[in-house]
């Protein structure tokens, strides 16, 4: 009936909540806010970004899953929450492919290794040489255990057969403060929070983990030139809660794709080293499936067990 259909459609004046499993100022939060501004304008509905960091994303996923106002709730996750957390946290009893509706892959972003200007190595080769000379002496900070940056640090050690002293922090901000303060000499994270520090000369870029020079990152060294095969990207995906009418899912997908073609948003994303992806809901589902397999292998190689 028409009444039932209306009841299922979110009222345009009802705010949409976008739940983000990361702290304010982190790479996922930066992209989520850029996207929510666009969607607010395109869907004609107010948007609220709700940061719920903690426990590898479990806090945010469970909050989005249990919300009473489900058609008005979206979940915006970074790669590790969808692919790594279910393998490394015993408490992660969720599968985003079945518990939510994938809307679209929004953007992807390489990682970047950076060093403390005064105490850190001068290059990635230098960092590897120091770690080889003194196993466990080079403190390498990253965001949460099992995150893509953390796995990037673990894989760097494995691919170069060296032993870094890997120190996962609980947030992006903590990892950044640690390398700026010299508590760690090297750090790795998504590029967005690091780029301003590199551009202002407060941190030294050691290596970007992309497979090519990317717009906005010209002149920064590529990790693969020092460590062949060291190519790694994080990504962001938007989900609707289970039971959201499929017409609504398609409407949001169309709004996301339109936003990702807006030169203004593309420019803002590129300024934070994020590169638009987009595509259909089927593309998002297929991509999620292949990424789950890829990261399961990385987790296995890193020797991470469920805790």
- Largest sheet data: 10 strands, mixed
What ranges have pLDDT less than 50 throughout 5 or more consecutive residues?
Answer: 1-8
- What is the number of helical segments per DSSP (H or I, 4+ residues)? 13
What overall form do the CA principal axes indicate? globular
**Helix share, percent:** 40-55%
- Structural class based on helices, strands and sheet pairing: alpha/beta
DSSP strand count: 10
Taken as a percent bin, the fraction of beta residues is 15-25%
Q: If you had to describe this structure to a student in words, what would you say it looks like?
A:
With 307 residues, the chain is of the alpha/beta class. It contains 13 helices and 10 strands. Strands 1, 2, 3, 4, 5, 6, 7, 8, 9 and 10 form a 10-stranded mixed sheet that branches. Strand 1, helix 2 and strand 2 (47-51) form a beta-alpha-beta unit. Helix 2 (27-43) packs across helix 11 and helix 8 (148-159) crosses helix 13 (281-302). It is globular, with a radius of gyration of 20 Å. Residues 1-8 have low confidence and may be disordered.
């Amino acid at each position: 009936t028409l009444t039932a259909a209306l009841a299922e459609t979110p009222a345009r004046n009802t705010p949409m909540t976008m739940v983000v499993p990361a702290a304010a100022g982190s790479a996922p939060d930066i992209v989520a806010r850029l996207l929510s501004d666009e969607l607010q304008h395109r869907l004609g509905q107010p948007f609220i970004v709700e940061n719920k960091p903690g426990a590898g994303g479990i806090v945010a996923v469970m909050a989005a899953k249990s919300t009473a106002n489900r058609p008005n709730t979206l979940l915006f996750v970074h790669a590790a929450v969808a692919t790594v957390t279910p393998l490394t946290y015993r408490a992660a009893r969720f599968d985003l492919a079945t518990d939510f509706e994938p809307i679209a892959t929004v953007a992807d972003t390489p990682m970047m290794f950076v060093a403390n200007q005064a105490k850190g190595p001068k290059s990635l080769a230098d960092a590897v040489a120091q770690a080889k000379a003194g196993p466990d002496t080079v403190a390498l900070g990253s965001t949460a255990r099992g995150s893509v940056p953390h796995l990037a640090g673990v894989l760097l050690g494995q691919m170069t057969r060296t032993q870094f002293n890997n120190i996962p922090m609980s947030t992006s901000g903590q990892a950044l403060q640690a390398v700026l303060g010299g508590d760690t000499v090297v750090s790795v994270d998504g590029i967005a929070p690091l780029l301003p520090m590199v551009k202002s000369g407060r941190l030294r870029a050691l290596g970007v983990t992309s497979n090519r020079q990317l717009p906005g990152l010209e002149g920064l060294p590529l990790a693969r030139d020092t460590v062949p095969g060291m190519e790694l990207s994080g990504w962001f995906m938007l989900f609707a809660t289970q039971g959201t009418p499929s017409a609504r899912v398609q409407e949001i997908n169309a709004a996301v794709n339109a936003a990702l073609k807006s030169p203004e948003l593309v420019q803002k994303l590129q300024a934070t080293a994020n590169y638009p992806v987009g595509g259909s809901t089927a593309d998002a589902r297929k991509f999620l499936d292949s990424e789950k397999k890829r990261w399961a292998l990385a987790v296995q190689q890193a020797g991470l067990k469920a805790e």
